[in-house]
Amino acid sequence: xxxxxxxxxxxxxxxxxxxxxxxxxxxxxxxxxxxxxxxxxxxxxxxxxxxxxxxxxxxxxxxxxxxxxxxxxxxxxxxxxxxxxxxxxxxxxxxxxxxxxxxxxxxxxxxxxxxxxxxxxx
Length: 122
Description:
By secondary structure, the protein is mainly α. It has helices at about 35-40, 60-65, 70-80, 90-110; strands at about 25, 45-50, 55.
């Protein structure tokens, strides 16, 4: 399924609580070495239901750090566009790879979760 398609998963038979439509997305995972970047690609997104937060690994950075061809394509795209800074959102090949990784990791995370509210147990 393409990243741009909206999909709904019938996870529960009940409606979400009012106000839960506001989701905070953060990127708290930091990787410095190429080994850590490769490990980051296998990291699943994490959620914290108490704060309605979704934590995502920095998949674009990890992909470009571990795939020389993708890094080259991203640099070419960035140079053609004349952008400085982070232009990873515009590079079609990087965008597609990120969507693929994110979709796969989210599906694993959601299908592997068997309960709700685990933060309360920690």
